Amino acid sequence: MTLARALLASPTPAAREAEAELRRTHDFVAPEDADMIIALGGDGFMLQTLHAMLERRRIVPVYGMNRGTVGFLMNNWSADDLDARLSRARTLSVSPLVMDAVTIEGERVTLPAINEVSLLRETRQTAWIEVSVSGRVVLDELVCDGVLVATPAGSTAYNLSAHGPILPLGSSLQALTPISPFRPRRWRGAILADSARIGFRVLDPVKRPVSAVADQREVRDVASVEVAIDRATALKLMFDPEHALDDRITMEQFIS
Predict the structure, then answer these.
(1) For the domain bounded by 5-95+233-252, which CATH number is listed?
(2) Which of 37, 57, 83, 166 is most enclosed, with most CB atoms within 10 A?
């Protein structure tokens, strides 16, 4: 039985042209009626598509084709043999992070993050942040431009550019990575089990304000943030066998 498919495209000319080509030869349904989604765009559009499913609370597999720039989360673009490619595709499950932030005004904001949650200084003043893991303070004072928590799927994104470790998919790990740390000078971060709950307390939130960003959604002037893997939620990404995400993540460790 053929699954009901929805087709979504980013607003770029390349994605719109690809969308028109596929619609000439295939039938698609509305996203809310679909058993799977085909997404045309780049990594940013894939994240947007996944976040939209989380908001609707209806999760179906997503098969992306790259009509963007990097396309790390996407398959190669081709309008040919779509049915055969979908039948051969491997499905990988990715659990998102949940960020629970409290602002200095007492507002509480909870957001999901598929790649990472990052805390970033808002001004020229460095951030002073206390770091805890599962309720235990592990750093009394991290002086830095910021700090982030990344999933295995997101470990090759902002985390990698901040010199964090690449985590294999299925490793049940998360990366805790400082961004331009000043004190402690030699602390490079940590690799933690995905069961760990990571807490951040901003030590001087008025003089040294900090924002918290869950993927692309920002909460400004935070006083504290807690981050944990949402193991009850599984996003499903589909990949061609020759372009599986776990293989790509592995090979990133050998790129100079």
Answers:
(1) 3.40.50.10330
(2) 37
What is the pTM assigned to this prediction?
A: 0.88
156 is in an annotated binding site: yes
For 28-54, the DSSP string reads: ---GGG-SEEEEEE-HHHHHHHHHHHH
In eight-state DSSP terms, residue 206 is T
Nearest 10 degrees: CA dihedral of 18, 24, 26, 30?
Answer: 80
Domain 5-95+233-252 and domain 97-229, same fold? Reply is no
Q: Domain map of the chain by residue range?
A: 5-95+233-252, 97-229
Q: Which of 27, 33, 35, 43 is catalytic?
A: 43
Mean pLDDT of 167-184: 92
100 catalytic? Reply is no
Q: For residue 10, say whether it is annotated as part of any ligand binding site.
A: no
Per-residue pLDDT reduced to its tens digit, 82-97 = 999 999 999 988 899 9
Q: Please tell me whether 115 is known to bind a ligand.
A: yes
How is the chain split among helix, strand and coil, in percent rounded to 5?
20, 40, 40
pLDDT at 256 over 70: no
Answer for the pair 72, 45: CB distance below 8 angstroms, yes or no.
no
Is 116 annotated to bind ligand?
A: yes
Question: Which are the contacts of 69, defined by CB distance < 8 A and separation ≥ 6?
Answer: 42
To the nearest whole number, what is the mean pLDDT of the chain?
A: 93
164 marked among binding-site residues: no
Q: For 209-238, how does the pLDDT look when each residue is reduced to its tens digit (9 = 90+)?
A: 999 999 989 999 999 999 999 988 999 999
